[in-house]
Amino acid sequence: MQPADTTRYSPIAIAFHWLLALAIAGSFSVGLYMHELPFSPTRLKLYNWHKWAGITIMVLSAARLLWRLTHRPPAGLPMAMWQRRAAHVTHTALYVLFFAVPLSGWAYSSAAGFPVVVYGVLPLPDFVPVDKALAEWLKGTHKVLTITLSLFVIGHLAGALKHQFIDRDRLLSRMWPARFSVRP
After folding, report:
1. Would residue 142 count as lying in a domain?
2. Is 1 domain-assigned?
3. Closest C-alpha among 55, 37, 40 to residue 99
4. Dist CA 35 CA 54 (whole Å)
C-alpha cells in the first residue's frame, strides 16, 4: 500500500486514469462517427471496434475499482464542503457509468441480435434475449447513459481545471504523470 501522507496518486492509479480517459474519449468519438454512417463494411467494422472498446473499458474499470478499493488515495486538498461533496458525487457517478454504459451497449447488441465477439475471438454470451422492442429501449438507454457520462466527464474536467488555474492548488499534479510537470 502507498503511504497515507503522499500527495500524489500512485503510478498505477495514474495509468488507469489516463488509459480509461483515452479509451472513453476514443469510444465516444467512434460512436458519434459510426452512428451516422450508411450500412457498409466500414460501419460494421467500427461497430465491432466500439463493442470491443466498451468491454475493454468495463474490464479496465473493474481493475481500476479493485485498485482503488485496495490502495488509499492521497489525502484530499483543503476545499469547501460543497466542493468535496460535488467531487464525491462526480467520482461515484463516473464509476457507476463506467459500467452502466458498456453494459447497456452489450444488452442492446444482444437484444438486436448482434453478438459481441471481443477482438473477433472471444464470443460473449447474449446479455438479454433477442427482442426488437427491448433493443429500441436499450438503444435509447445507452445513448442517455453515454450523454450523462459525457456531462460528468465535462464537470470533472472543469473542476480539475478550476482547481489548477483559478485556485492554483496544483490539483492536476496529483494525477499527472510525474515526468510532466504541471504548473498553474
Report:
1. yes
2. no
3. 55
4. 15
CB 30 within 8 A of CB 45: no
pLDDT in tens, 144-177: 999 999 999 999 999 999 988 998 888 888 888 8
Within 8 A by CB and 6+ apart from 56, the residues are 23, 118
* Exposed/middle/buried for residue 74 (C-beta within 10 Å: 0-12, 13-18, 19+): middle
Q: Which of 42, 35, 55 is nearest to 104 (CA)?
A: 55
Site of grid cell 479496465: 60
- Return the CA Rg of the chain: 19
CA 111/CA 132 separation, integer angstroms: 7
Type of residue found at 13: A
The pTM of the full predicted model, rounded to 2 decimals, is 0.89
| CATH code of residue 36 | 1.20.950.20
